[in-house]
Amino acid sequence: MADLLIELFSEEIPARMQARAGEDLKKRMTDGLVEAGLTYAGAHALTTPRRLTLAIEDLLEHSPTVREERKGPKVGAPDKAIEGFLRGAGVSRDQLKERDTPKGAVYFATIEKPGRPAAEIIAEVLEDTIRNFPWPKSMRWGAGSLRWVRPLHSILCLLTREDGSEVVALNIDGIKSGDSTAGHRFMAPARFSVTGFEDYAAKLKRAFVELEPKEREAAIWQDATNQAFASGLEVVDDKGLLAEVAGLVEWPVVLMGSIDAEFLDLPPEVLQTSMKEHQKFFSVKNPKTGRIEKFITVANRETADDGATILAGNQKVLSARLADAKFFWENDLRIAKSEVGMEGWLESLGNVTFHNKLGTQAARIDRIAALAREIAPIVGADADLAEQAAKVAKADLSSEMVYEFPELQGLMGRYYAEAAGLPQDVANACQQHYSPLGPSDEVPAEPVSVAVALADKIDTLTGFWAIDEKPTGSKDPYALRRAALGVIRLVLENGLKLCLSILLTEHGAKVAYKALTLEHQNLATERSQLLKQITKAQEALADKDRERVDAQLSVISNRMVHIEENYFEQKGFIHLGRKLAPNLLSFFHDRLKVFLRDQGIRHDVIDACIAMEGNDDLTLLVKRARALEEFMSSEDGGNLLQGFKRANNILSQAEEKDGVEYSYGADKKFIEDAAEAALFDALAAGEGAISSAIEAEDFAAAMGGMAALRAPVDAFFEAVQVNSDNSVVRRNRLNLLSQIRKVCGQVADLSRIEG
Amino acid sequence: MPPKGKDMTQTTAPRSFQEIILRLQTYWASKGCAILQPYDMEVGAGTFHPATTLRSLGSKPWAAAYVQPSRRPTDGRYGENPNRLQHYYQYQVLIKPSPPELQELYLGSLQAIGVDMELHDIRFVEDDWESPTLGAWGLGWEVWCDGMEVSQFTYFQQVGGHDCHPVSGELTYGLERLAMYILGVDHVMDMPFNDPQSPQPLSYGDIFKQTEEEYARWNFDVANTEVLLRHFEEAEAECASILSQEHIDPKTNKRIIMAHPAYDQCIKASHIFNLLDARGVISVTERQAYIGRVRTLAKQCADAFVQTEAGGFTNESAA
């Protein structure tokens, strides 16, 4: 057994790629070694900005010998065939064995692949790993053709045994493997040799390199919180930033600095974003006031002045940055408070394209405002407020602050709307209408925000459906799945009764019409440009080009005529909405299934409910599904389902055989058996009870009605033979079964339920 | 690889903007770079100098360093913003093939201009470079000194649509910002341009405050957009016309491909586009189209350059 140490030493690896690269190195190496027969006890990947390190423990020193038997030609086959087989198997004639098989005597050869020393295998696997490393982006350098994330400088590859260590020889495009590495770029740049992992890690630590990213993270966090605590402050938690910062340093040194007083009145989110995005600083806040008062920066070295120069420099850079932010903030506030107010920002959104097939942001905002107004009464919001909120909700996209920090969209809108003296509901909607952004993001509950949030998402969805940009597989560039889930959660968590079909059809029609108009306009422009080109270059245009332009022109004209005839000349354009709405609704149902499955509702139960009318009322649909799920997991439910399936099967077979539908209802006078009579009565009573329960959307009662059917159904099948010799009796019984299907069918399509 | 000169470990602090430039010139000269002069046309960045764009193409080794005055009309602030200028200086180094010790060479240059490596925190932070106008991209870093970006460090992978073989290493220093940091100045206009002890001390503002105002006014409000639009079209047409000429000059009977004159027209078109942008007459959609047109020119110039001797063309490679 031996231990293997590998270090790939390069110029600075982007922080965001390090963790993944460590894992990839480990996986590719261990997979390759195991495949070649070298098993091991443990493997551990470590990364710093300049190195990927892999330590493998207890690796076999030799791969085992493998024997494989290969079947050859029949005994007595022509010599040529036998010689060919010998060549292929790499054995001589006297090594062949004869053995009887059902087809007669056949030659067999045993091929022995001798094991190989570990070093040989490691060298091959490592070279393959380096040459085919899955970096998200890689590059060449100098005059070579090797690719790595940044120039690769040295390879350490060492096999260590109890009696010493051995360099695994490797030469990749002139980079030769060895047993040495270098310390910290500035604090201990000299190269040194190592004898194994422990020696390596210990010497690196003395050379100011902390190898383990988690250790660097822990050290940074502990030191940062301690320093903040000593000043009665606390560090704002940010795991992503911590991981990134730990990937920028080999020897973290935490320094805490102050923010100039003139910037302390900026919104805390602005301070935090500016410091994080530009400087990778942690924010340090006063827990009593919630204000951010200091920052933490992490340097990559110790200095004789204990970081004083570094801190002063960072502080200066921060001040320049915050001066920018302050300038944006004050400028934006001035505009928001001015007479023009946020309207001015809206106007400039007329020049911003949302999507080239869907027009400008301003046009989109107009549509959202109209839709928000329509939705308002359904969600209990004031229609004027909802419309106003939708109008200003995206105005902050024109502000300087959001231009600089796009991630502050919405939040800045709220600040500016407040400054402009707009109603609080409207200001809140600016911030909340983007929510919920993910499955765990909070769902807005204020009616005005809910109206705008729904309108925003429905406009997005219908828009991309209209131009046929639906998500496919893992591709969802416009985050449409998220938008649909957003609508679902907004509806469910606010218990809204929303007829999605109508909204999707009507709004979809508007958006689709807009998209077609836009396409028509664009085609017209393109056509006139082409025509201009032709006249301008009448003579100069070669025949070949002329043909190409003509062909292009006729494609354009055909499409324009198609749009005119098929869409514009019809009265109204609701048909455009009818075309896209059903497909979009089933997209919602798919998202809903995923959402409910995570909450433990079976997909077949949801399917059984989706098959019912009113499935565009998601609240109702989910209520039904929950009640059904509960009923189906009860004993009554399970048994009733069996009864229903049995009835359904008998009925379907009979209907197919007889070529008629037994849906007239049973007649009491043909009933012969007591169990039959009991079922008849139970169904008559159940039908009324269940239908009125469904009417009242009281699904618990409906399920109660279903449960009451279980005993009579069971008893019926116990006592009665449906296929009686008497055809009248048989027909009547089939009609009775049909009644079971009809009564149960009021609740859900039980035929879709499995089991 | 450039020959190694003796290391310049300057420990004294520079006292003026020009001293920093002079030290960079001396340092890179000592490392074997040809010290070129600025290109005599308006460009948006040092990368546009043909000594970078064109010379990064083809197989011939190259090592050059130069100051390039650069113009970004949209960044004009009438000389009032402490950090923003419509006219500023970049220091540019391009070495092909990129030497293995390029990072160390670069750090040496910081030392040469007075950055004490023992006191400062220098970091290489991921920053991939892409120029849609030049059809170029590369991987590298922005270099941070105590949290401030002081340089851009790039390994060119593609220029003008051509893969770079060998790869050039490009270093770009934003001279004003770097100098302000080293000299401890808060407003660019207050920065000493020459030695403050000289008989006639001049600040950056003495030299550029007025011009910043003049150009800001012209860039934003006065430049005749119709004329500019026409110039753009003309430059585009001239570039195409130059490149459409036969390779053999009928007068001298020599093979003369006019890659550089054509590239001048590309530079011109690019600058005119920047001016039009500053005048606010280019819409968001048009913007992409203009950038695409300049890129087409840049690519055609690159195609032409690799057909020239400087671009690595030999009679064998033609065969």
How would you explain this protein's 3D organization?
- Helices cover about 55% and strands about 15% of the residues of chain A.
- By secondary structure, chain A is an alpha+beta fold.
- Chain A folds into five domains: about 1-60 and about 115-205, 2-Layer Sandwich (Alpha-Beta Plaits); about 65-115, no CATH class; about 215-335, no CATH class; about 340-590, no CATH class; about 605-750, Isoleucyl-tRNA Synthetase, Domain 1 (Orthogonal Bundle), CATH 1.10.730.
- In chain A, strands 1, 2, 3, 7, 8, 9 and 10 form a seven-stranded mixed beta sheet that branches.
- In chain A, strand 17 and strand 18 form a beta hairpin.
- In chain A, helix 16 crosses helix 19, helix 17 runs antiparallel to helix 18 (about 545-570) and helix 17 (about 500-535) crosses helix 19 (about 575-595).
- The relative contact order of chain A is 0.05.
- Chain B has nine helices and nine strands.
- Chain B has helices at about 15-30, 50-55, 100-110, 175-185, 205-220, 225-245, 260-280, 285-305, 315-319, and strands at about 35, 60-70, 85-95, 120-125, 130, 135-145, 150-160, 160-165, 170-175.
- In chain B, strands 1, 2, 3, 4, 5, 6, 7, 8 and 9 form a nine-stranded mixed beta sheet that branches.
- In chain B, strand 6 and strand 7 form a beta hairpin.
- The longest helix of chain B has 22 residues, at about 285-305.
- In chain B, about 45% of the residues are buried.
- Residues about 1-10 of chain B have low confidence and may be disordered.
- Chains A and B meet through helix 8 of A and strand 4, strand 6 and strand 7 of B.
